[in-house]
Write a structure and sequence with these properties.
This protein is mainly β. It has one domain: Golgi alpha-mannosidase II (Immunoglobulin-like). Helices cover 0% and strands 56% of the residues. The protein has no helices and eleven strands. The strands form three sheets. A five-stranded antiparallel beta sheet has the order 5-6-11-8-9, with no helix packed on it. A hairpin with a 2-residue loop joins strand 5 (32-40) and strand 6 (43-50).
Length: 117
């Protein structure tokens, strides 16, 4: 998630949070691994991998533990996708993986417990 709990307040500050679209729950889908590899200013680098050799996986990546960051764009390889929302959908083919470069305006949204759908 690229985050930590603060000393006394115990609030979660995170760059990203994951949601399983198919099971309609918080957390990574089955067989999906995620790694935050770098954080710099309003940019976060994550790697997502679907280890299932036969099943596709669908998920949302939310910017901020409570959707408090506004995702402006996501770059995958040489292609950049505009987002302008607090979350974006990801579909991973069987056995696939990619590095995502997520650009955000940090703390641009009021925090919410709502799921991204």
């Amino acid at each position: 998630m690229g985050g930590n709990l603060t000393d006394r307040i115990w609030s979660l500050h995170a760059r990203v949070r994951y949601f399983d679209t198919d099971k309609r729950r918080a957390g990574l889908p089955e067989d999906v691994a995620a790694l935050v590899t770098k954080m710099e200013g309003g940019t976060t680098w994550i790697t997502l991998v679907n280890t299932s050799p036969v099943e596709s996986r669908n998920m949302y990546v939310q910017t901020g533990a409570f959707g408090e960051h506004q995702c402006t764009s996501v770059r995958v390889g040489d292609k950049e996708y505009p987002v302008n929302y607090r979350a974006f959908a990801v579909s991973l083919a069987p056995g696939s993986g990619s590095e995502l470069v997520i650009k955000t305006k940090r703390y641009a949204n009021p925090p919410t417990f709502s799921f991204p759908w």
